[in-house]
Task: inverse folding
């Protein structure tokens, strides 16, 4: 997602909402559907590194690639979102606060914070800090809704973070910078907001409309940040190298927009509504596994035995958290 905790969640009294962040839909739809949609979301989010790396190597800035990603995705979703609303503009109007918060915090701010973190830290460390957002979700559910985590949840969290450390291989020599750490924690807050706002959004607001509104707001924020000089929006229209072939820059941009944004955000919001914020946030750690897998398959980057072990540990942690949810 490389996708704040201080942003208030919409009132639990919104139609279909439950204190755990899941909606009444969870009672009608099997949990397996939520898991499947979430895994589709995290797998497609995981492709963003493969598509973006080809653009970055051709001279695009990180913010330029992300702005193209969310901007094109917002345009693509415009008609489907309006059709899904079926004229119920009042639903979107009454949900404008969480939609704007989603766009500003979970889309734009999270991206800017992550890219600033990368400018001060190694990518692996920045990712590790961003994915601490799962812990922030647990803390938010405790402070906001009184859901004190059980010892099983704490064990699952410890396993998941340990596995993340192994997958990202941050045990060696790394750069640590206080400013970078603060930006990384900002990215973690943005990631936590993604799960919390997705889970607590109005059940009558179609996920596709929620994603469209958030991406549109995020695009405007990123363009304003570029105009203000906060981020660089470099986007040279040149041929790029992708999967060993020379191709137009259009194809990785479409991959970023249609796969890593349209599918990823819509499936992510839908899955999180079914599963709730806490479990979805831990399941979101699989995005790192998918990203490493795609880099191995498409970019011929090495995949070590330690990373495989880390992947197993992450999945074990997610399983423990799910068991704790059902206990």
Result:
């Amino acid at each position: 997602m490389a996708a704040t905790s201080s942003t208030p969640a919409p009132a639990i009294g919104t139609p279909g909402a439950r204190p755990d962040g899941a909606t009444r839909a969870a009672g009608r739809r099997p949990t397996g559907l939520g898991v499947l949609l979430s895994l589709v979301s995290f797998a497609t989010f995981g492709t963003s590194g493969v598509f973006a790396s080809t653009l970055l190597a051709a001279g695009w800035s990180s913010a330029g690639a992300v702005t193209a990603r969310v901007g094109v995705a917002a345009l693509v979703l415009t008609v489907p979102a309006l059709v899904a609303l079926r004229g119920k503009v009042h639903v979107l109007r009454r949900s404008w606060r969480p939609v704007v918060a989603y766009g500003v915090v979970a889309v734009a701010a999270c991206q800017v914070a992550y890219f600033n973190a990368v400018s001060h830290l190694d990518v692996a460390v920045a990712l590790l800090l961003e994915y601490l957002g799962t812990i922030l979700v647990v803390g938010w559910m405790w402070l906001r809704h009184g859901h004190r985590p059980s010892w099983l949840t704490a064990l699952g969290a410890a396993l998941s973070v340990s596995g993340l450390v192994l997958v990202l291989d941050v045990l060696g020599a790394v750069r640590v910078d206080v400013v970078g750490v603060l930006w990384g924690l900002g990215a973690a807050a943005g990631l936590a907001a993604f799960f919390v706002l997705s889970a607590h959004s109005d059940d009558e607001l179609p996920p596709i409309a929620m994603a469209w509104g958030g991406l549109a707001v995020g695009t405007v924020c990123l363009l304003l940040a570029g105009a203000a000089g906060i981020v660089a929006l470099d986007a040279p229209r040149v041929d790029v190298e992708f999967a060993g072939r020379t191709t137009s820059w259009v194809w990785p941009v479409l991959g970023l927009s249609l796969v890593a944004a349209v599918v990823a955000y819509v499936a992510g919001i839908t899955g999180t509504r079914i599963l709730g914020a806490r479990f979805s946030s831990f399941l979101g750690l699989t995005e790192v596994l998918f990203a490493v897998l795609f880099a191995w398959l498409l970019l011929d980057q090495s995949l070590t035995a330690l990373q495989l072990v880390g992947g197993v540990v992450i999945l074990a942690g997610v399983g423990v958290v799910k068991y704790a949810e059902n206990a």
Remarks:
- The longest strand covers residues 240-242.
- The chain has 15 helices and two strands.
- Residues 3-20, 23-28 have pLDDT under 50 and may be disordered.
- The longest helix spans residues 250-275.
